[in-house]
Each structure stands twice: as structure tokens, then as C-alpha cells.
Fold:
Amino acid sequence: MKTNKAATANATAKIATGNESWGFHHTIQENLKLSDAEAAEAFDLAVRFTAKRLKMELPAARRFLDSRLGRHLADVCNEATPKRIEEVLGSLYGQWKRDVREFSRVAINSTDEAFYA
Structure:
């Protein structure tokens, strides 16, 4: 049985933020006083969960969490530990369903750098 090397690498490689100064990654790190490694783990989990939950590709989920709404999602996750990110985001996405869908549509298609500041 053949395996897809790109799919395997994609499933195991950590997904890094493209916006270290704001977005979900920076905010979760600051709010929860996480180390760089813990924040990277939380971001990776959040991107994978977001992609699965919102049915989007990983790069689109990363851009979504690097945006302003990613920063706001991280603010609401202030009680979470990195291991509980999926649980907390699942609850939030249920509550913010319409806003998250609309914002993710815009985030996926946006090339405006100010959108991510």
C-alpha cells in the first residue's frame, strides 16, 4: 500500500504562525504566560481543530487564526490550558457560528496586510 508522503508530512509537521506580533498565537502566549514551545503547540492544535471544524484547508485556518478574530478567540480562551484548546474553541465556534463562518470566508480571501494587524 502506497502512502502519500506530502499528506504524512502535513499531518505531522507543526503549523507555525505567520503573525507572531498579534493573532491567536501571540495573544494565547501572553494571556496564559506560555513558553514559546507551549504557544506553538497550542497554535498547532488550534489550527488543526479549526480546519477540521470549519471544513477549510490548513493554510486558510492558519490565516484565520492569525487575523484579528484569532486574537479575540485567544482572549476568550484565557481559562484554557494548551491541552484544552480544542474543547474551548469547539464551544466558542458553536456560539459564534455565523460570525466565524463569515470572518473565515473573508480571511481566506484577504490579501490586505492590515487585516492581520
User: Anything to note?
Assistant: The chain has one domain: 18-110. Residues 18-110 form one domain.
